[in-house]
Amino acid sequence: DAKTTQPTSMDCAEGRAANLPCNHSTISGNEYVYWYRQIHSQGPQYIIHGLKNNETNEMASLIITEDRKSSTLILPHATLRDTAVYYCIVRPLFQGAQKLVFGQGTRLTINP
Amino acid sequence: DADVTQTPRNRITKTGKRIMLECSQTKGHDRMYWYRQDPGLGLRLIYYSFDVKDINKGEISDGYSVSRQAQAKFSLSLESAIPNQTALYFCATSDLGGAQHFGDGTRLSIL
Fold first, then answer.
1. How many CB atoms lie within 10 A of CB A98?
2. Distances, alpha carbon B89 to alpha carbons A27, A103, B3, B10, B14, in Å
3. B73 Cβ contact list (under 8 Å, min separation 6)
4. DSSP helix/strand/coil, A84
């Protein structure tokens, strides 16, 4: 899996958009960008994934640059419950064992 | 994710005991996984199964065994528990699309 780089921590005010960046400059053509989060003491939660087009679902939006070397996860109206560690992962869609390798992630704190 | 249910949520037991952790899912996924999470070590894959007749070892399978009783059920056993198996255990499922959906975990303590 391609290596990713994320800021260690970020803060965001409640109700504002939280924009979480991820660099993945060595991404291969067949690799997707996945985002997960883990709230303390809970299981990791899948958020969204994409290849090259921007994606949106009920939780978030994913913006991938045209060269695919970086992406941004956007939580449009952050709430206190969005406080978590967010992980950006790059991997092929169909991969043998599909083991997830989480890096250090970004610890996002939503402030009242 | 309520679609992936793990039982028990917490368990304290003694060295040498046999323990079974259970996982059931209502997502209809063929693929299921068992991970453990330790502070500072991230997720490590123990076993995975791509369908009912398929069982594969992950990176840390020693001391563990699994059973895929049905598409929806995947259990993890510790035959003779030891203290360094104290960890947070997660079950996950996925379809071919690759996104994995996790249960809320089992916190296991072995004294």
1. 20
2. 30, 18, 17, 10, 17
3. B22, B23, B24, B25
4. strand
With contact defined as beta carbons under 8 Å apart, do A112 and A14 qualify? yes
Would you say residue A97 has pLDDT above 60? no
Q: If chain B, 111 residues long, is cut into consecutive pieces of 10 residues, what is the mean pLDDT of each piece?
A: 89 96 95 90 88 91 95 96 96 84 95 95
Cβ distance of B104 and A42 shorter than 8 Å: yes
Nearest alpha-carbon partner for B24 in B32, B14, B35, B15: B32
Spell out which residues of chain B touch residue A93, defining contact as CB-CB under 8 Å: 97-98
Q: What is the pLDDT of residue A1?
A: 59
Mean per-residue pLDDT over chain A, rounded? 91
Contact A99 B102 (CB under 8 A): no
Phi/psi region, residue B2 (left: phi>0; alpha: psi -120 to 50; beta: rest), is: alpha
- Which residues in chain B have Cβ-Cβ distances shorter than 8 Å to A94? 96, 98
Residue A95 has pLDDT above 70, yes or no: no
> Do B65 and B18 contact (CB within 8 A), yes or no?
no
- Tokens 């490590």 belong to residue: B44
| DSSP for residue A5 | B
d(CA A93, CA A65): 19
β-pairing, A70-75 with B100-102?
unpaired
Residues of chain A with C-beta less than 8 angstroms from the C-beta of B99: 34, 46, 49
Would you give the DSSP letter of residue A17?
Answer: P
Angstroms from A43 CA to nearest CA on chain B: 5
